[in-house]
Design goal:
Helix content: 25-40%
Order of helices and strands: HHH
Oligomer: single chain
Number of strands: 0
Distance between the termini: 49 Å
Number of helices: 3
Length: 66
């Protein structure tokens, strides 16, 4: 018998989401465009990587984590 623990974990939880299948395509495109433009989180604008010499690792690490 195959089963999961999800029914036990998800008790008293509302699983809320967006059913985009029935949403009109033109409105989905408009929403996607807004998410990639004016609603885009500013944290995503920061480049996820940087290059530095090995002797600067501690200083660079502190600047990223603080």
């Amino acid at each position: 018998m195959a089963t999961t623990v999800i029914p036990f974990i998800s008790r008293n939880i509302n699983w809320l989401g967006i059913d985009s299948v029935v949403y009109p395509m033109d409105k989905r495109v408009k929403a996607r465009n807004r998410l990639s433009d004016d609603l885009k989180p500013t944290a995503l604008m920061i480049p996820p990587t940087c290059q530095c010499p090995i002797h600067q690792y501690p200083k660079t690490w502190l600047s990223i984590t603080l």
